Amino acid sequence: MQYTFKALTLSYKIAPIAVREAVALNEIACKNLLDKINEFTDARDVLVLSTCNRTEVYYASELDLSQELVKLIAMEKGFIATKEITPYFKSITDHEEAVQHLFYVSLGLESQVVGDMQILNQVKKAYQWAADANMAGPFLHRLMHTIFAANKQAVNETAFRDGAASVSYATVELVEELTKGMENPRVLMIGVGEIGADVCDNFQKSSVRNIVIANRTHHKALELAQKTGATAVYWEQVWEEIKRADVVVSSVPGECFFISKAALNGQPLRTPKFFIDLSMPRSIDAELEALEGVRVLNIDNIRNRATAALKMRLASVPAVKQIVVDAMAEFKVWTKEMEMSPALQQFKNRLEEIRQQELARYLKNLGEAEKAAVEAITKSMLNKIVKLPAIELKAACLRGESEELLNGLAALFQLEQKQEA
To answer: Which residues does NADP(+) bind (predicted)?
Structure first.
């Protein structure tokens, strides 16, 4: 039976940032959604992935569960009506297309900045959560490790990950453009999660070096500051630092911290001032632009900034896609072999029944040593007999002819059963 892997995806390609943040799931929400899917559906091999650019659910089921999954996402996010978000979700029900989509997403072929290295770490975390929730079976385990191997091959054999064309580096480039002509511009980095830390790392390669880091957990800010040559401030100083900075970059989810227009309206601000929001949900009020000398940019403004590294990566896309094609072909062979396993096991069990029946007839009058010898000989013969069709089935998988052999094997079982009857 054909394995039925599917995907439900909402991404920056069709969904505006307001919709993406409405359905964005943090770690706890992703884990909760896994539990809900397990409880309310028959889906297996489930992977829940949510980043600033996409919210996706990969799963195996005979049925298209997209409507149920959208409802469960809405339930987790705390809203009932789904008609506003449903049009932005795409359901991929073709098995091969869903597998390819997960390959493309994981390797960065679907990222806003092509080849973004952060996405693979996010996929690995999603995979770990699926494994922890017992929602990853042999199919998903094998698929993920095939993807990781393909990514390693892309890194080693192409220029797809060369250079620094990531969201983090694109942010640094944007800051350089915005502050061109300023003398020693002051940049405040709020939050030291994965993206925030990467932004600070990339500032080490920039001419902009007056970087201030604020984080609720001060020792994390201090460690990152010491590593990157920045300055760490206590969280209690964050609002004062916002006023002093020329550029404010936030990677803290809006549900945890929010810079509103009301909070800064009437305050003495150093202008011109630029706010760059890398958060999901957003943590910077777009209405801040109503204040004089203030400009707000978000993750969508970072998209595909023109860099030499990005050009190299784009040139490498055909080679990476070929790596995916080869990896998918190898994975498809394994999938077919997995489908053969029950038939082979049934074949082996049937032969074992015959062996046991025949041994029961002739071992009665033999001594213990003779019985052991006959047992060993017949078991060895059985294993060699089973090995031949197993090898042929594997070869048939490589030729794409496994279905015919599988049907033939099933027919042989039926004939034997009818003969016994």
So the answer is: 191-196
52 belongs to the catalytic site: yes
Tokens of 201: 């790392």
**Binding-site positions:** 51-54, 111, 116-118, 122, 191-196
Q: ω into residue 389 within 30 of 0, thus cis?
A: no
Per-residue pLDDT of the chain (421 residues; tens, 9 = 90+): 456 999 999 999 999 988 998 999 999 999 999 999 999 999 999 999 999 889 999 999 999 999 999 999 999 998 877 888 999 999 999 999 999 999 999 999 998 878 887 899 999 999 999 999 999 999 999 999 999 999 999 999 998 877 656 788 889 989 999 999 999 999 999 999 888 998 999 899 899 999 999 999 999 999 999 999 999 999 999 999 999 999 999 999 988 999 999 999 988 888 899 999 999 889 999 999 999 999 999 888 876 554 556 778 888 999 999 999 999 998 988 887 776 666 666 777 777 878 888 888 777 778 888 888 888 988 888 888 778 777 776 676 666 666 666 666 666 655 344 333 3
30, 52, 200, 397: the catalytic one is: 52
